[in-house]
Design goal:
This protein has a 5-stranded mixed beta barrel. The chain is mainly β and 163 residues long.
Length: 163
């Protein structure tokens, strides 16, 4: 069986890091994904997809992503249900996030993002400078404090693709 989701869209709000009752960090966020087909004369439509990241991936998202920024998400769909305070059963569908990546250009995101970085439980890929400043409103996570910007080298960024 296969349950794999890959999304690319814009965050609808700043992600907020929270901690579960068992002490595990998590982050809920919504990604607005444009639909690929639009009827002539109609405005573009988007789907708003709820996502949940856990542990280091949640810390990475809350630290480096902001409202309106492009994000690529890989994960799986998880459904559930609960009874609300009015006694009605509510069904939920979320993407359980495994990996996230920056997308778009620095110019597009106001210079706060870095193309090529991704998080898969705290492991980072890519070749751009890691020294971009994180959001100021989030305290650094302990799992990221052991590295140094001098461990990375800067690669020139231009819009020319190497292929």
């Amino acid at each position: 069986m296969l349950n794999v989701v890959v999304l690319m869209g814009r965050l609808t709000a700043d992600p907020e890091l929270r901690t579960s009752s068992s002490g595990v960090s998590y982050c809920r966020f919504t990604v607005a994904v444009d639909r690929s087909f639009t009827k002539p004369g109609e405005e573009k439509k988007a789907d708003f997809i709820n996502c949940v990241a856990w542990r280091q991936t949640a810390e990475f998202v809350s630290r480096y992503f902001t409202k309106g920024q492009m994000i690529a998400v890989e994960g799986s769909i998880q459904t559930g249900s609960y009874t609300n305070k009015d006694g009605a059963k509510v069904y939920t569908t979320d993407v359980q996030v495994n990996n996230v990546s920056f997308t778009g250009s620095k110019r597009e995101s106001g210079g706060s993002g870095s193309d090529g970085y991704s998080s898969n439980g705290g492991n980072y890929g890519g070749s751009n400078n890691y020294s971009d400043r994180p959001r100021n409103d989030v305290a650094p996570a302990s799992s990221y404090s052991s590295g140094s910007a001098s461990d990375f080298q800067q690669t020139p960024i231009d819009d020319d693709l190497p292929f």
